[in-house]
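Let's do one together. I've listed all components of the complex below, 709 residues spread over two lines.
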Amino acid sequence: MSSVLFVALPLLFGFSTPILGYFGKNAVAYVSTLMQLFLLYLGFDLLLNEGFSIELISIAPPLGISFVVTKVSLLFVLLFTSVMTLFSLYYLSYRSEKPYRDESKFFILINMLLAASIGLVLSSDIFNIYVFFEIAGISAYILSAYEKSSSALEAGIKYLITGAVASIFLIFAIVLIYIYIGSLNLGIIAQHFELLPFQIKLLISILLLIGFGFKVEIFPLNFWVSDVYQGSSTLVNALFSAIVVKAYLFVFFHLLYLFLPHGEFSLFLIYLGAFSMLAAEVAGLRQSHLKRLFAYSSLGQVALVFTAFALQNTQAIQAALFIVLAHSVAKMGIFFALALIEKEHESMESETLKSLNSPFLRVILLISMLSLLGIPLFAGFVGKLLVLKSLALEGMLPIIMMIILASLIEAVYYFKLAGYMFTSDKRRDVLKVTWAHKTILAFLSLLLLIIGMAPFLLSEYLFEASKLMLGGVS
Amino acid sequence: MSIKRSLSTLTLSGFTLSALLILSFINILLQNVATNIERAGDGLLKLNSSEGVANVVTTVVVYFRGFDTLGEIAVLFIASLGVGLMLERNTECTIKVQSNFMLQSASKLLFPIIIIFGLYVMIYGHLSPGGGFQGGVLVASAVLLLLISNKDLEVPHAVISALETLAGVSYVLIGLMGLLLSDVFLFNFLSPNIADFGLLLSGGIIPIVYIIVGIKVGSEMGFIVQNLLKRSDDV
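Okay, and this is what the predicted structure of the assembly comes out as:
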């Protein structure tokens, strides 16, 4: 089956919601979830059949746009589709108590976000990537302002302004590329990029770094992230940290490996990533708002992935892919659990955890935090170990010190939260968690344990994927 | 206050950065651009003859890079949805002053002319300059004229919504038809005939898609215009 369906079906769903609205209140929600399940099936179908395909759109590349499915892009597509499916399933049982206002529009937005993130990963045309960059951006701005409280509106406007600035930089880079190379196809650009004059190459690289820097949340350009996480609704934050930022990370490094295969700016990017991680964890230390705190922890994890990708060798990329998976699963668990807590306690200060009376949620939060921290037997450990290993092979001692220091700081605030959860005795009444929510949360935590205890199940696939990513198939 | 101030600083620094960027950009642009390279645009120009469409820009926008256009339609769709979501609770018209007699009569006179011109631009997009985007905006401007001349006017929401849905769904379905019939999404499955060059019915799916784009753009812009006018001033 065709990979274009990943984008076409969500668009079709988005455009046809007024028709679905006639079939009753729940039709939109159920059709959306069924469509996401179908896309998940489609992803596994592509994986089992060949794992590699090129899908033409309108006319043949290099003049036309095409979708390239490889093992590595398929990994991200499967991640996004399964995250979105789990999100929908979780929301389906959440909505009976506290639905979003104007639900059908909410479903349009999350499906547009899914389509755009998948398009970003699959497309092999740089202008097409820009179009998906815009769709993902605009749907994310609206999602973060969705609740229309003052903090949500602040989040939406901050997100909008930074996103608009980012897309200016990106479009200038694309214009320069077209002027100097005369093509928008990634493969052709990759062939000619090295032959460009040094100044042009530098300018394009800087423009791309700034344009994507806002979106991959790297140090000087990530000032907006904590406000966006604080203002957005808790469930939507799961999408931001598990889908949106991962799609931009993939695209940024995909372009980097294609355009600069010899790692010209590698060292600079490694230091940038490590410094971002340290800065994020230090800033996270003095946060008392839970969503803000986990925003900074997301920044730290993303910076670690950035460092690993910037090393530009197969083992480091494999490590980065491990962290991407572990972080997505852990953050989903955390934000899903926090959404339940927020609904019950109506507060997101970290003191709230003191009065949390639900052993189940406490265990889920603890497992997710231990995985984020990189404790052995949890999924986060494998990735962190591999990153440190490949850094050691490159002899980068200062970077290793920075990462370990950042992890220690991270441990301080996680254990503070764990202390709040397990030592206090001023409990409220028992927080009831429905069986549907319990199943999904338990599944996520189980996934973290399985990846952590048996990383060999994934490592071969991820190794192949990282070879493909570095080799730059497009 | 502090939010306002930080936002304005943010905007200001954004503008300054972009201005600096544009200056350096133009500077580099003027220095040494290779003129001898073959650009993708030249290749698309050569390909155009096979589609039998008089207006090359239309072929590129609707067909060769039709997927980008579908994406742009999606961008406009979400943008209008966002405007609707953010301004929805208000129903009162912002225009407090009753429009004068001249505007009321002139808009009645101009409305049909603008609509017909907009439809012409939309339908003849593959033969002459113009097309769906331009035609759609023209139609929306006619609606805007009616709305500002008569503040009590209600544009029938159901009709616009139906048109919008129809256009959006049929765009994706045309793409899927191509996928079904010849394994290529958005393929020109109506196999254009070169002999029809310059006729209204030429170019296969290209004029159809452009009219769909026109309807979609017109209804989205109509929604945005209406939502912006209906904002009350208590926000």
